Amino acid sequence: MRHPITDDKVIIKRGADGHYVYFSVRDDRDNGSIIDFVQQRSRGMSLGAVRKELRPWTGYPPVPVPSFPSLPKTEKDRMKVEAAYGRMDDAAKGHPYLERERALPGTLLAHERFAGRVRVDDRGNAVFPHFDAQGLSGFEIKNKGFTGFASGGTKGLWLSHEAPDDNRLVVTEALSTASPTRLVC
Fold first, then answer.
1. Sorting pLDDT into bands at 50, 70 and 90, what band is 173?
2. What is the mean predicted confidence (pLDDT) over 30-35?
3. Cross-strand partners of 128
């Protein structure tokens, strides 16, 4: 096939597996399936948009998209976040998920640098506060197979307590309890 304006030329043939494929005579990188063909010529059309583009060629009617009600926007409530965080216990005495699953030693959790920076909620989850320029803005909730975020909170940054003479930032995490990580503060 040859394009009448751009003089683009492609060869279309049936591949060994029975599917049709194409390749460009002018560009070795321009080849593949019909999906690749449409994406190449549309400059990165999403897969969903390619499906919409190709659906009329299949002979089937368009698939109706179900309508869903709009989701309500969550209200940001810093006071609610601060009150909930204030009711939680400090994890300085240890936390099973952080110690067993994430290989963070209890001595690290008890270090003064991290005092109050990891807490435990009433369900036993590890809670990490997030901060913005105004202070506590939300908190992430973690446990084995679970991650959540404070209702009414906004994401910010988790950080340890800073000292005036800090000149390094160390970020580390263990992959398993079989290879524990040591962090020197």
1. low
2. 90
3. 140
Cβ atoms within 10 A of the Cβ of 59, count?
Answer: 6
Please tell me the distance from the alpha carbon of residue 85 to that of residue 150, in angstroms, as a whole number.
9
Taking the whole predicted model, whether its pTM rises above 0.85 is answered as: no
Residues 47 and 45: their CA atoms lie apart, in Å, by: 7
pLDDT at 14 exceeding the cut of 60: yes
In the 8-state DSSP scheme, what is residue 171?
A: -
Mean pLDDT of the region 26-43: 87
CB 170 within 8 A of CB 123: no
Q: Tell me the C-alpha distance between 113 and 146, whole Å.
A: 26
Tokens linked to 75: 């209200």
Q: What are the phi and psi torsion angles at 89 (to 5°)? A: -85, 150
Q: Which of 151, 134, 158 is nearest to 77 (CA)?
A: 151
Mean pLDDT of 124-145: 93
Which range among 30-39, 63-72, 113-122, 140-149 shows the weakest confidence by mean pLDDT?
Answer: 63-72
Q: Tell me how far apart the alpha carbons of residues 55 and 178 are, in angstroms, rounded to a whole number.
A: 51
Phi, psi angle pair for 3, to nearest 5°: -80, 130
| CB crowding 8-36: b at 16 or more within 10 Å, else e | eebeeeeeeeeeebbbeeeeeebeeebee
